[in-house]
Specification:
Number of strands: 13
Family: Belongs to the disease resistance NB-LRR family.
Largest sheet: 8 strands, parallel
Low-confidence stretches: 3-9
CATH architecture of the largest domain: Alpha-Beta Horseshoe
Strand content: 5-15%
Shape: globular
Pfam families: LRR_14, WHD_DRP
GO cellular component, one term: membrane
CATH superfamily of the largest domain: Ribonuclease Inhibitor
InterPro entries: Apaf_helical (IPR042197), Disease_R_plants (IPR044974), LRR_dom_sf (IPR032675), LRR_R13L4/SHOC2-like (IPR055414), P-loop_NTPase (IPR027417), WH-like_DNA-bd_sf (IPR036388), WHD_DRP (IPR058922)
Number of helices: 11
Keywords: ATP-binding, Leucine-rich repeat, Nucleotide-binding, Plant defense, Repeat
Length: 361
């Protein structure tokens, strides 16, 4: 792994140094892969010797704990990758996520450093971050696919590391009682617990976290119910949100106050029992991603959707009642990706429309 392209024979000294490093890793496969990923970035014999004698010496003193080796891998991450890695602590262990879902979330949070001199767009830069994680064995590919999307997950120990290095900016709410102990400094939160009606969040949660930038509700239970009053309170309290992910919630009404989230860049509304979206949604001029997966009763998109001037990705998968899309959609100059799989839209007409707008895939 560390040599790449079978170049072991080019330097027999590196082979011997590599064998010593493997021995110091204690035979732990994940630790060996992590060390190998680091060494791929080091080209000279001196760098390998320094890694063995200096970096790995701390591992030996640490009792050959594989977590010490993984921390070393994290410490070698560039700063711009560290916050993306910490962000992954919001997801539960063994959670499978699509590559483009993750990188568009990073983009929405402003984690991607796209330079003015670069010819790559921000999605290309974000994808390069993800590929860097793959090369470092921080993500592993799963066997799951959906349409053209490949899913990935973290090894359990890598996930433990992400939880360990994430500071108080990141917090996962795993049970209802946790809502009382979320640090005030938290900017990015995820909910992994079952909710029922209006009892999801105490008043103190709203008061203490008005600066929240991301809220991700990930519970997969089909019986989760979020009351209209709770949703209204969330929207009015968390006015600085850049990302709002609410899935698998039984709710039939989406408040007009949604249009007040002027900083919102990413909105996911999945598995809701809603039939229409409020037209106030079109006031979200910074919105880049709109996901409406599994909204089986959704019949219409907002007629003024053309006002979403920053929209780059629109995903409406398995919205079986959606029979047509507003003409204004084709006026969106920023739109790069349109996914209407398993909707009731005339496929021939849709194909003709997409062909006329050269930048949509």
């Amino acid at each position: 792994m560390a040599f790449g392209c079978n170049k072991e024979s080019e330097n027999s000294n590196l082979v011997e140094i590599g064998k010593e490093i493997v021995r110091k890793c204690g035979g732990v496969p994940l630790a060996i892969r992590s060390a190998g990923s680091l060494l791929r970035l080091k080209r000279t014999e001196d760098e390998w010797i320094y890694f063995k004698n200096k970096d790995l010496s701390s591992i030996t003193r640490g009792g050959n704990d594989e977590m010490v080796i993984l921390r070393l891998s994290y410490n070698h991450l560039p700063q711009h990758l560290k916050i993306c890695f910490a962000y992954c602590s919001l997801y539960p262990k063994d959670f499978k996520i699509g590559r483009f879902d993750l990188i568009t979330m990073w983009i929405a949070q402003g984690f991607i450093q796209a330079t003015a001199s670069s010819t790559d767009n921000v999605e290309d830069v974000a994808n390069s971050y993800f590929m860097d994680f793959l090369r470092r064995s921080l993500f592993q590919e799963t066997k799951e696919h959906e349409s053209f999307m490949q899913f990935y997950k973290m090894h359990d120990l890598i996930h433990d590391l992400a939880k360990e290095v994430a500071d108080r900016d990141f917090f996962s709410i795993t049970k209802a009682e946790d809502t009382e102990v979320v640090p005030e400094q938290t900017l990015y939160a995820s909910g992994l617990f079952k909710i029922d009606g209006s009892s999801a969040f105490p008043n103190s949660f709203y008061r203490k976290h008005m600066k929240l930038r991301a809220f991700i509700f990930l519970n997969q239970s089909s019986i989760n119910v979020l009351s209209n009053s709770t949703l209204e309170r969330m929207i009015s309290s968390f006015s600085r949100l850049r990302l709002l992910h609410l899935g698998h919630l039984k709710i039939e009404f989406l408040s007009q106050s949604l249009g007040g989230l002027k900083h919102l860049r990413y909105l996911c509304i999945s598995s809701w029992s809603i039939s229409t979206l409020p037209n106030s949604l079109t006031k979200l001029h910074n919105l880049q991603v709109l996901k409406l997966d599994d909204c089986g009763k959704l019949k219409y998109l907002p007629k003024d959707i053309w006002r979403l001037e920053s929209l780059r990705r629109l995903v409406c998968r398995r919205c079986h009642s959606l029979t047509h899309i507003p003409q204004g959609l084709w006026q969106l100059k920023s739109l790069m990706h349109l996914d209407l799989d398993d909707c009731s839209i005339n496929r021939t007409l849709l194909k003709e429309r997409k062909a006329k707008v050269y930048n949509i895939i």
